[in-house]
Write a structure and sequence with these properties.
Layout lengths: L6 H79 L1
Length: 86
């Protein structure tokens, strides 16, 4: 190669190669950082959804438990009223 090209040309080619390689490495690093930030955001959103879902389920259980207790209380009041009528 050095017999065809002069040493200056070889040096220039090597420098250009290193510049291009460095630019590509930087671009790949930027894209990797972007992907990581997207993954963090996805994880955060999934966490919020999971929390919201758990909250809704807990709230639903609490509401149904309250409704069951209210029905039970109403039935006890009816029974008490029936007993008092006798």
């Amino acid at each position: 190669l050095s017999s065809i090209l002069g040493m200056n040309e070889i040096t220039n080619l090597k420098e250009n190669y290193e510049k291009v390689r460095s630019l590509l490495d930087n671009e790949m690093e930027k894209k990797a950082d972007f992907v990581k930030s997207l993954q963090k955001e996805i994880d955060l959103q999934e966490s919020k959804i999971d929390y919201g879902y758990k909250y809704l389920i807990t709230d639903e259980i609490s509401n149904s438990s309250f409704e069951d207790k209210q029905k039970e209380n109403n039935e006890l009041q009816k029974s008490k009223a029936q007993i008092e009528e006798r």
